[in-house]
Each structure stands twice: as structure tokens, then as C-alpha cells.
Amino acid sequence: MRNKRAGLIIGVALFLALAAVLVAAKFMGDASASGPRVAVASGAIVQGTKLSDDKLHMVEWPAGSVPPGAITDMKKLENRIARVDIGSGEPVTEAKLAPVGTMGGLSAVVAAGKRAMTVRVNDVVGVAGFALPGNYVDILVNMQGTSGDNGAAQPSISKIVLERILVLAVAQESNRDDSKPRVVNAVTLELAPEQVEKLDLARSIGSLSLVLRNQIDPLASNTSGATRESVLGLPPAAPAPRVTPRADLPAPAPAPAPAAVRVPAPRHDGVLVIRGLDAVSN
Questions:
Q1: Concatenated DSSP letters of 15-39
Q2: Rounded-to-integer distance, Cα 212 and Cα 126, Å
Q3: What are the structural domains, with CATH classification, of the chain?
Q4: Using an 8 Å Cβ cutoff, are 268 and 257 in contact?
């Protein structure tokens, strides 16, 4: 009797478990089937690439997890440019695309209001090739000491002039997938217009270096720069004295004008003969 009752309880439990599985499967199937069809990448798409039908396909997406800005109509992707890298199977959203009418290439990657500027680097300036597209760098300028117009010496200084600058491309490549260092002779940076002017002046007055920084570190350094005295622990150099005229002293008297030189009248040698009222010189 007990065995029959135990078998009945086990049978009922198995039936209820099977029913719960079937109901959950049906519910999940209905939820996924009711979602919209969104465009996803058929393979990896590099930033700056023009989208085409062979790079995309439509898949059903669960209604409750559709990404914001997902594209549900393939016609909206005609002649659009990828602004960032899109992985295989990743949904294509409006935030990952350049504005309508943008041409392909690096210009499609530059953010609105920003500019792209290229600076010359080497294996040392370019952080041994570790400054790759997508990284952020600080820009350091080293200016050698000079003499001012008033004779005062300007000390050598090394100073961070720009911070958290996005690297758009190295050499002629903007691919962000490769994490291996690449030693190149040029790096293209994304800058605001005022930063472009500052960097252009900085590279004309000193030598530039790139400093690789943490990707998620937003803090500014706020340094005053390093000089010869601060590095060696020497006291600051005393500025050269400037000579200024005293206001309480009288102005110097003007120099006297040179005396006029009188030239004697020319002398005439000879005999003066007077005849009546006329004088004749011989």
C-alpha cells in the first residue's frame, strides 16, 4: 500500500515538472517569436566601412531586450557608414553609424565638433607602438631654455599640455581590433579646434611625446610642469635684474648743439689800383 502511494506521489511530481517545463518553453518561444526583426552584422565590420547587404542580415530579437536605436528596416542602412567597429552577430544601432550623407573613411569616425590632426612620432614618442586606435593619450611638450628679449633666461620645462586625447589612427590604419604594438611614424588624434591650435604651437616650440593613459581614467593631472631646478632639487633660479628709470630723478639735459664754424672770406693777392671812383684789381 505504501509503495503504491509513493509511486503515485512520484508520478504526480513528474507530471507537474513536465507540465512546468512545457509551459515555460511555450512562454519563452512566444516571447521570442513576438519580438521584431533587427539588423545584425554577418561578420566583423571595421569603422569607416560602408554597409551593404552582404555584411548584414535580419534576425528575430526578443521583444523585451531590443537594443535602443536598433535598425528594423534594411533600407535605412543603404550607404550608411559604421562609425565604430561592429562585431559579428552584434545588432546595428543608430549610435554606431555616422550621420546620413557621410562619406566613408576616417572623416566618418571624427566626432561632431572635433578635428583630426596627425603628428610625427617614433618608437619612443609613440610609446613603443602601444598607442593604438581607440586608446587615450596625454601630450607632453619639452621646451629647451631660451633667452628673452630683456635678457632674462627662460628655463627648460617639460609640461603636459593636452590630456585624454583619442587616437583615431596610426600610420594609415584605423583598425581597433589589433592589440599588438605597432611602431609607426605618424599618429592621428581627435582634437577640439582650440586643442588643434595648441598642439600646432606646441610642436613648433618644443619636442612632443605621447603618454599612454588608462582607458577609463577621466581625472586631470593639473601639474605645474618639471624644470631643471625641480628635477635636481635646486632652488629656483633668480630672475635677471631689470633696470628701470626712477621717476623722481630729473630728465637728463639735452646735449648742446655744436658751435657754428665761421669760414674766413677768401683772400685775393694782387695790387688794387684806384682810378677816380672805380677800383681795378691786378
A1: HHHHHHHHHHHHHHHHHHHTSPEEE
A2: 9
A3: 37-109 (3.90.1210.10), 110-232 (no CATH)
A4: no
Number of other residues whose CB lies within 10 A of the CB of residue 279 = 9
Residue from 160, 138, 164 nearest 217 by CA:
164
User: 192 and 115 in contact (C-beta within 8 Å)?
Assistant: yes
Q: pTM score, two decimals?
A: 0.58
Question: pLDDT tens track of the chain, all 282 residues?
Answer: 566 666 677 777 777 787 777 777 666 655 545 678 999 999 998 888 889 889 999 998 888 888 899 999 999 898 898 888 899 999 999 988 888 877 777 788 888 899 999 988 877 766 777 888 888 999 999 888 766 555 566 778 889 999 999 998 887 776 665 667 777 888 999 999 999 999 999 988 888 888 888 888 888 888 888 887 888 888 876 665 565 555 555 666 666 666 665 655 555 555 555 565 555 555
How does strand 153-154 pair with strand 115-120? unpaired
Burial 50-87 (b: 16+ CB within 10 A, else e): bbeeebbeeeebeeeeeeeebbeeeeebeebbbbebbe
